[in-house]
Design goal:
By secondary structure, the protein is mostly beta strands. It is built from no helices and 13 strands. A 13-stranded antiparallel beta sheet has the order 1-2-3-4-5-6-7-8-9-10-11-12-13, with no helix packed on it. A hairpin with a 2-residue loop joins strand 12 and strand 13.
């Protein structure tokens, strides 16, 4: 069941507010590779001219691929830019966090801990942890990356362990390091 309320003013900037409640919605017909049932309570507000939208995820839970799923946080679109507000999604032991804006000085931070890549695709296996912060702010562009994974299989490529670091700093220059062990492509082992 999906229900809600909408207030929309048809003049000026056409401001609107909405609340939506979804209870036990079967998402399987829309996403057959990710069968599940979700419930959500969302609050939206914004304007049509110019487009401004804020979505507050007050409650998001259910199951996807027979694993518990939940989420919270928010997203905004302002002046054509996407801003994440402590958006957190979790499925089983895997988590995904998104916070910030690409063009702000602090940038946007993406963090993921995936306990099993096999849930993403049948061609993938292993676990992966990543944290990326990037800012395209003209006054202070920056990039930092931290990545680690174990027992990775990506199609015909196998990596027993990967560690990658790109420290934060001004601009996109600077040192980085990648450590691979147990790399194989098909049956061919690659010395690292």
């Amino acid at each position: 069941t999906i229900s809600g309320n909408l207030f929309w003013k048809w003049t000026g900037n056409q401001p609107f507010e909405a609340e939506m409640l979804a209870q036990r919605v079967n998402i399987t017909p829309l996403f057959p590779d990710y069968p599940g049932v979700l419930s959500a309570r969302l609050a939206l507000e914004g304007e049509v001219q110019p487009l401004r939208l804020a979505v507050d995820i007050q409650q998001l839970d259910g199951t996807i691929q027979e694993l518990p799923f939940n989420g919270q946080g928010g997203l905004r679109i302002e002046q054509g830019r996407l801003i994440a507000n402590q958006l957190q999604l979790a499925s089983g032991a895997s988590t995904l966090d998104l916070d910030g804006s690409l063009y702000e000085p602090g940038g946007i931070t993406f963090a993921a801990d995936i306990d099993s890549l096999a849930r993403v695709s049948e061609d993938f296996q292993g676990s992966l942890s990543a944290r990326v912060n990037v800012s395209l702010n003209p006054a202070s562009p920056s990039l930092s990356v931290s990545l680690s994974g174990q027992d990775l299989v990506l199609g015909s490529v196998r990596i027993d362990r990967i560690e990658a670091q790109k420290p934060s700093g001004s601009g996109f220059e600077g040192g980085s390091g990648i450590v691979l062990s147990g790399l194989a492509i098909g049956q061919q082992k690659v010395e690292t």
